[in-house]
Design brief:
Layout lengths: L7 H11 L9 E3 L2 E5 H12 L2 E7 L5 E6 L5 E7 L4 E9 L8
Antiparallel strand pairs: 1-2, 2-6, 3-4, 4-5, 5-6
Length: 102
């Protein structure tokens, strides 16, 4: 069984992205999703959560749906990447780990 904490990691990722001071690079929200430069989001996922891309599939609309995860911690993030320059965090959470409260 997968226990999901909706937008928990997304909120942390958004906070981390908000604290980045990169001139000329402004994050935004689209339908409540955090959107930003794809390379910046991928860097935050790797650096802050140890997540790497596990899968990428074509989306019915433009772009890709990307799945990032950290097998050790159980954290995961799903991105919508409409083009090569930007991504939006669709959802995030974690898989239950032994000893972790649910």
């Amino acid at each position: 069984m997968v226990r999901v904490r909706p937008m928990f990691l997304g909120a942390i990722c958004a906070a981390a992205l908000t604290n980045l001071a990169i001139p000329g690079l402004a994050d935004s929200t689209v339908d409540g999703m955090t959107c930003h430069d794809r390379d910046v989001i991928v860097d935050v996922l790797k650096r802050e959560f140890g997540e790497t891309q596990m899968r990428a599939d074509l989306h019915d609309g433009p772009g890709l749906i990307e799945f990032f995860a950290n097998a050790r911690s159980g954290s995961w993030t799903v991105l919508l990447t409409p083009d090569e320059h930007s991504s939006c965090v669709l959802e995030s959470g974690y898989l239950p780990q032994p000893g972790r409260p649910t």
